[in-house]
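Forum > Structural Biology > Help requests

Title: Can anyone predict the 3D structure of Farnesoic acid O-methyl transferase domain-containing protein?

Hi all, first post here. I have the sequence for Farnesoic acid O-methyl transferase domain-containing protein but no way to get a structure on my laptop. I'd be grateful if someone could post the structure tokens.
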Amino acid sequence: MEIQVKSNGYEVPDTRKSVPHIYSALNENSNGVYTYIEPKVIISSKRKWKKKLRLCVTLFLGLIIGIGLTIAGFQIFGPSSPPSPSINHYDNFESPSGNKTFTTPENYEFRMVRCEIGNIPFKQKFLSFSVKACSDVYLVLTSKYDDEGPLIEIAIGLNGNTRSAIRTEKRGTNIVTFTRSFLNCRRFTRFWVSWKNQIIQVGMGLKENNREFMMMMDDRKLNIVNIGISTGRGTTGDWLFVKP
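Reply #1:
Sure, ran it for you. Structure tokens for Farnesoic acid O-methyl transferase domain-containing protein below:
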């Protein structure tokens, strides 16, 4: 609403101060005419805000209930927990029977295991173990705590699981060889190793001197202090060291 008043020399009251809730501005135009402009008044409806608030609360509660029902349904109808792995699936953990188990990767790199298998094999100079692999498993008897010093390497399942050997270096010359397939991709094969009186012996089974198939004399008089295990040529291996 606009109201025009001509002053004719009279003082026009400042309506912005007297009735500010009705008029918002007093503008002076030409010819002494003053224009009063009534502001637009926006009245917010409390009912609309209440409806919006109720809608937000309803949506929030519905979301919470939906999430709760989803979780409850998954727990009731979801897949059951997988069974515990069998002993040959452990990786560097103590199996339920107390035996030590390991998994070696495809690359030829030795993992030293003295800390896990303990000191008894080194006092007895005898070790028994089981291994599951398709081919190319290696065990080293080392005179140092790593695999860089003088050592004995026992390789089983070479050339596609057709030959085994004893060496005095990693992947060195075969000093002793034996032609036969020992390993199996799906089940464990048991072996034992002895290094008493400078004689290196390798046999099948878990008892010393049982079914020996390789033997070598070693004049270097090595003091064996650690054992390393490895696989190679694209095959992995599961190892189990029997608790003494």
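The chain has five helices and 16 strands. Confidence is low (pLDDT under 50) at residues 1-12, 14-30, 34-43, 78-96.
Shout if anything looks off.
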